[in-house]
Amino acid sequence: MTSATITGPIASQKPSGLRIGRILLYVVLSLGAVLMITPFLWMVLTAFKNDLEIATFSWLPTELRWRNFVEAMQSAPFLRYFRNSLFIAVGETAFTLAVCTTAGYALAKLPIRGSKALLSYFILLLLVPFQIILVPLFLIVKSIPLFGGNNILGQGGIGWLNSWWGLIIPLGAAPLFTFLARQFYVSIPNELAQAARVDGLGEFGIFWRIMTPLVKPALITICVFQIEAAWNGFLWPLMITTSDSMRPLQLGLAIFAQNPAEIQWPYLMAGTALATLPMIVMFVFAQKRFVEGMANVGIKG
Amino acid sequence: MSATLEHPTKTAAAPRGAAPVKESRELIRSQVRAGWILLSPALLHSGIFIVIPVLAVLVLSLTDYSFGDSWSWVGLGNYADLFRDVDFQASLVNTVLYAVVVIPISMAIALAVAVGLNQKIKGLGFFRTAFYIPTVTATVAIATIWLWIYNPGSGLANGFLSLFGFAPNRWLADPATALPSLMVVGIWQGLGTKIIIYLAALQGVSRDLLESADLDGASRWQKFVNVTLPALSPVQFFVLITSIVGTFQVFDLVYVMTRGGPGTETRVLVLDIYQNAFQDLKLGYASAETVIMMIVIALFIGAGRLLQKADVND
């Protein structure tokens, strides 16, 4: 594998040596892929098994017990959890889009004084891990004035605790998405906005009708990341929800898995499949968006 | 105000020459106004839900606040108590151990896989999807699946190992294997993001440099060490920082799989903070713990920076 491989006369050696290397590469990568997928396969297979089959180790169920899915839905309100997760994901994504595209556009295209400093501010904030602000965030959400029995000073009630507001608003509109949106708008030429201005279109019209349609693919990137984050969230709903009527799927799963001695594994795996499938489907369809988004944040950010 | 606006006004008016200066100044003003209006929701939101909490955690850490009306300043008392708290010590040690084991291993595996995927292989989409699926999946779901895999009686882990004649292991219930079992899941789940970032970065490595290294007769390994790795350095640092922050935040996995047990073998910082704050209602104490976590994360990032600098200088 030294210079010999690139000089002409001995080039005939190259294929055989390379081929073994390539076969090895495929074998190793395939093994890796199997390691990644097997747990999910095992989850699906378990979801179809009966109680006897899970008493010992076995790969395949003897029959596909579709009933398990129905019974799982009856043993815990998984469907309601699912609906709650969906509601939180959609609400949070809409909120994020509204707040982050406007801010990102303003930072990228409008002549605000100190817009550089403001950009640094958002970049700095995107480094703050959620776990750091856990305790005070809870107190702030509890003291939102005039909600949940609070007076105007935010005292006396529970504020946004155990409410859709509390589940959706605090974790939406992450600085990361403002930063991403800004990056997308920056790449659009100013001439378009300038031309629209000459035609007498107002600033908000320019933002909404001219510039935003041009970053549509980028907005989809923001959507998939926000949907994923909202769907997979656990700690925050765990902290602020007290009733089943608002709990998302991840929390429902964790509650169902609470007592390992009595877990009904087929039901739990059926519920887990329900929790994982939507995101896997979304990834398969929006793979390009995920990859581009990750690459953007990782390499340019 | 007008002084700073003069410059943009001129440039905006310049191309059209005859445009009345007054009108374009008004135009600029309306742009500035629109800018602040569009920006204000994000500023308000980040102020209330990020900046105030960050400052509040510092203040809270100096108090004995616990939801009630009466509270008092305790100075550094919480911090002093923390250093005598065995649960906290165990959590800190476990979290650091978790980070120190998971980060390098997952970075090395991810880099190796990314280099493999970068060899113009067939089925790139399939492999990428396979490696990324654990990352898009909720950690709680991952945790329940692995809870079942590690089940001592009929789980996949013992079932698979028994094929090779290994005796069954108790995995999460055994103090010796509990934390390593969690580390395996952490490594497994975190590969996808890193692979995709590395893969994108590898595609940006200069072809010219690689080709001239070829001409100099460099071996593959030499090319990797001398050309590819240095070119990846900024991305390595990004991956390192996000991994540090990510591993220190580990919670969902532990909460679902072990609750910190057996004993305190898998107790981690965020779990300890969560329990101090929301079960024992010691919010001031939990805040002090958070501040220490911030400091440890900062130390790790600083160490990572030094490592990277040393690497570049080599």
Describe the structure.
The complex is a heterodimer of chains A (301) and B (314). Residues 1-13 of chain A have low confidence and may be disordered. Chain A folds into two domains: 3-47; 75-300, Orthogonal Bundle (MetI-like fold), CATH 1.10.3720. By secondary structure, chain A is an all-alpha fold. Chain A contains 14 helices and no strands. The relative contact order of chain B is 0.12. Chain B has two domains: 2-60, no CATH class; 83-313, MetI-like fold, CATH 1.10.3720. The model of chain B is unreliable at 1-19 (pLDDT under 50). Helices cover 74% and strands 0% of the residues of chain B. Chain B starts with a helix and ends with a helix. Chain B is an all-alpha fold. Chain B has helices spanning 2-13, 21-60, 77-82, 86-117, 124-136, 139-149, 156-162, 178-202, 207-215, 220-248, 252-257, 269-278, 283-313.
Give a brief rundown of this model:
The complex is a heterodimer of chains A (301) and B (314). By secondary structure, chain A is an all-alpha fold.
Q: Which of globular, elongated, flat, extended, rod-shaped describes the shape of chain B? A: globular
Q: What is the share of helical residues of chain B?
A: over 70%
Report Rg of chain B: 26 Å
Looking at CATH, the homologous superfamily of the largest domain in chain A is MetI-like
Shape of chain A: globular
Tally of helical runs of chain A: 14
Query: By CATH's scheme, which homologous superfamily of the largest domain in chain B applies?
Result: MetI-like
| Range of helix content of chain A | 55-70%
Derived structural class of chain B: mainly alpha
How many domains in all of chain A?
2
CATH architecture of the largest domain in chain B: Orthogonal Bundle
Number of folding domains of chain B?
2
Strand content of chain A: under 5%
